[in-house]
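If your schedule permits, I should be very grateful for your opinion on a structural question. I have a record of one protein: its chain in single-letter code and its fold written as discrete structure tokens. Kindly check, if you would, that the fold set down in the tokens agrees with what the sequence suggests. I remain grateful for any guidance, and I place the record below:

***
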Amino acid sequence: MDDFEAVTLRDPSSALTATYVPNAGMVATSLSDDGVELLGQRRGLQAYVSNHKTMGIPILYPWANRLSSMGYGVDGAVVTLTPGTGGVRTDQHGVPIHGTLGGYKDWTVTAMLESQLTAELDFAARPALLATFPFPHLLTLDITLRDRTLTVTTTVTATTGSRVPLCFGFHPYLQLPGVPRAQWQIETPAMRYQPVNAWGIPTGRVEQRPAASESLGDKFIDDGFDEVAPGSVFALSGGDRRIEVHFDEGFTAAQVFAPGDDDVVCFEPMAAPTDALRRGGYHEVQPGESAVARFRITVS
């Protein structure tokens, strides 16, 4: 993988493995069950690093999904974003999408064991990162693979007098090789639906949705939600395999994405709804304190 140094974690209790690439944005490139790949590879790692074409499980940081314009204000500070600068990239409508850490190479690995990987990123030491998100903090990712479960724990520690907005998320591309997409079953918990405009930005209208179980069939899905309760479970199943995504804590919003052009389903844990960095509705880490968000992917 060119100059990318992959780290493969092994579950002591099963044939499950997970591969991460710290110097390519701490992206997970593989979750393999006895050789069966459960993460969508999309266009591959090189396209992710070069062109921000997401694959595997990327972190979306410091905001997930889209912002409605090229600037935002927090605590009186106004930030202007410039496409192509500081990791900012745009979607087809020209609005910023998925934060600034896509393929970011300067993560520091602080622990590496057979079934555990920990890496951190100090925003205070990275002027280019602070230019687009001017809130000094330490971002830590702790990954474990045990008991057929990949656990991803994110800790955000405010290291100065600034509060840090929490609007990040993750984008797991899940797949079921050998099972036709039309036969895939998806399960979602009760939560609140947020309709969007043509640019994918919430309209402000909301609608309660009960828990649901449905066949994916030929559906195209790209729906955003909030009011996701701690402990909520999303599931993809088909054939003899079931993959669950557990929103354990810190992720109160979600995007459910099943594109029409690739056989993948995404249950995206988000710390705040789409465009929250501009319109509010997010939690903050207070100076000197830490916030933890955790999700798990279980394979059975």
